[in-house]
């Protein structure tokens, strides 16, 4: 019976590879005199890796900016309650904004919306067509406008050969010269009529 019990235990015991994987036995590929050194080297590699990972981990400010941490001054135990309160606060603010937003007639009065019979989906097309029509009419008007010399001759545009500061004075002088020449002509005519009457 003891033989059977011993035989059962021997059959149930783990193999060498299982013991190595569970870190019960050291790696058999390494000489027994070097196994302790190998183990300590592996531990130091793991420690160095952990030190680098801890040193390179992002700071609290970075986690707050990335929205991983929510609040630096709130305990993690109440952060979820704080998050739900913040969400409700935003929802209330949004509801208030929606209730206070201007209606369609106010937007039309403020020239934000246009009063039109065109469907909203066609509004942008209508606006672009109106813009094209306006551009075409402006091109036509600029092509048909009179030349600069014609405008100067019709006294619509001032003479550009005179400095702008002197143009008003030049116009007044021209008027007075014309008035003088008209007065002289009238005086000559009057004198001629009087002379004819005397003879």
TrEMBL record:
<dbReference type="GO" id="GO:0045944">
    <property type="term" value="P:positive regulation of transcription by RNA polymerase II"/>
</dbReference>
<keyword id="KW-0677">Repeat</keyword>
<dbReference type="GO" id="GO:0005634">
    <property type="term" value="C:nucleus"/>
</dbReference>
<protein>
    <submittedName>
        <fullName>Uncharacterized protein</fullName>
    </submittedName>
</protein>
<feature type="repeat" description="RPEL">
    <location>
        <begin position="4"/>
        <end position="29"/>
    </location>
</feature>
<keyword id="KW-0539">Nucleus</keyword>
<dbReference type="InterPro" id="IPR004018">
    <property type="entry name" value="RPEL_repeat"/>
</dbReference>
<dbReference type="InterPro" id="IPR043451">
    <property type="entry name" value="Myocardin-like"/>
</dbReference>
<dbReference type="GO" id="GO:0003713">
    <property type="term" value="F:transcription coactivator activity"/>
</dbReference>
<feature type="repeat" description="RPEL">
    <location>
        <begin position="92"/>
        <end position="117"/>
    </location>
</feature>
<feature type="repeat" description="RPEL">
    <location>
        <begin position="48"/>
        <end position="73"/>
    </location>
</feature>
């Amino acid at each position: 019976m003891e033989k059977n019990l011993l035989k059962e235990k021997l059959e149930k015991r783990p193999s060498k590879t299982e013991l190595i994987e569970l870190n019960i036995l050291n790696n058999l590929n390494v000489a027994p005199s070097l196994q302790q050194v190998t183990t300590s080297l592996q531990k130091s590699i793991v420690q160095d890796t952990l030190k680098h990972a801890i040193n390179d981990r992002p700071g609290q400010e970075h986690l707050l900016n990335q929205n991983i941490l929510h609040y630096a001054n709130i305990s993690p135990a109440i952060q979820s309650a704080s998050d739900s309160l913040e969400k409700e606060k935003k929802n209330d603010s949004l509801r208030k904004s929606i209730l206070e937003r201007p209606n369609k007639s106010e937007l039309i009065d403020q020239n934000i919306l246009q009063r039109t019979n065109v469907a909203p989906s066609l509004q942008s097309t209508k606006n672009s067509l109106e813009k094209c029509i306006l551009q075409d009419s402006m091109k036509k008007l600029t092509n048909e406008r009179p030349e600069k010399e014609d405008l100067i001759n019709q006294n619509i545009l001032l003479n550009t050969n005179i400095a702008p500061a002197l143009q008003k004075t030049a116009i007044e002088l021209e008027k007075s010269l014309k008035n003088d020449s008209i007065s002289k002509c009238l005086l000559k005519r009057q004198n001629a009529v009087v002379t004819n009457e005397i003879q």
